[in-house]
Amino acid sequence: MKIAFLGDIILNGNYIHDWHNKQNPFSDITPYLDGFDFVVGNLECFVSGDNGNNPLRNKILQTEPETLGFLKSLHVDVVTLANNHVYDHRVSGFSKTTRLLDKYGIKWFGASTLRKDHYKPIVLEKDGVKVGLLNYVSEDTNPNLPENSDLYVNILKAEQILNDINLISNEVDYLVLILHWGGNVEYSLYPDVQQVLLADFLADSNVDLIIGHHSHTIQPMYQAKNTTVYFSLGNFCYDGKIKYGHRADKVRAGAVVECDFSPKGILTNRKIIHNVGRHLSLTKNDPGFINTPQRLLSSQNILNKLKLRNQLHFYFERSVNRISNFFGKLMDSKR
């Protein structure tokens, strides 16, 4: 069974105009995705609802009902919904979006308006091989659902994940966790130390593969015992202003993780896609800014890099605070 895992799918801005103008920015990549039995992506834009936006969020992503038709033309089979934009347009927008997904025959999971359904996994099956998918979002990405919300979202909690794994592990041959995580390292090229530690913890729980989203950048691959981890696949598609000018190219790039599940095991590979004027294309090689092109980092190497980065960040913040305090006292003395 061959599955392609995509990064963040955000059909906003000019993708809406592309659909209405009958322009297909995905024409070069669609034949490539046709070669997979299943295509799985993180849908991070929802259609507008009837009750306005989530007042607890500053950044809102939005698409139109018709534009979701690109998912069908891309042959996307499954989308994850446990992400920090799931409640952007409240329950009304969520329900409108999921009805359209049902219309297109696209499976969705990770959130639900029914309490009993939101933790349900997706099981993909072909040629006698079963792959289970579980999806969660970490609270540090700020989904910001109000306490009285009628939308139930899979929040990333170790105890809940272990419980869900126990419920499904005997029913599938392979288990994949799809995590929207790393809220403290958005736009960073490296994951947070806590993500590495969580990956190591989950590696002891019959998890075969971890696919990550949220950073909007491609982050390293990592081997945690027998579990392969892709911390973040970056953006599959997104139309908007790119902050962090020196990192603009990094944010416009995304990754596709190719997986071949068979009775003999799993083979994985990462392909890089590039977004130029919204038009997607596969690159022949990983660009130089990708941290670890086609190899897996050792646990010690990645932890050492993260510790060094965090130490430098600490010293930088301390220096800024000292300078700020110095000038604050200087100004006070002149008053």
Structural notes for this entry:
With 335 residues, this protein is α/β, with parallel strands linked by helices. It has 2 domains: 2-294, Metallo-dependent phosphatases (Purple Acid Phosphatase, chain A, domain 2, 4-Layer Sandwich), CATH 3.60.21.10; 298-335. 27% of the residues lie in helices and 27% in strands. It is built from 8 helices and 18 strands. The chain has helices at 14-20, 30-33, 69-73, 90-103, 158-168, 193-202, 248-252, 299-334; strands spanning 2-9, 38-43, 46-47, 62-63, 78-80, 107-109, 111-112, 122-126, 129-137, 152-153, 174-180, 209-213, 221-224, 227-230, 235-237, 253-262, 265-276, 279-282. The strands form 4 sheets. Strands 1, 2, 5, 6, 15, 16, 17 and 18 form an 8-stranded mixed beta sheet that branches. Strands 8-9-11-12-14-13 form a 6-stranded mixed beta sheet, with helices on one face. Strand 17 (265-276) and strand 18 (279-282) form a beta hairpin. The longest helix is centred in the C-terminal third of the chain and has 36 residues, at 299-334. The radius of gyration is 21 Å and the shape is globular. The protein starts with a strand and ends with a helix.
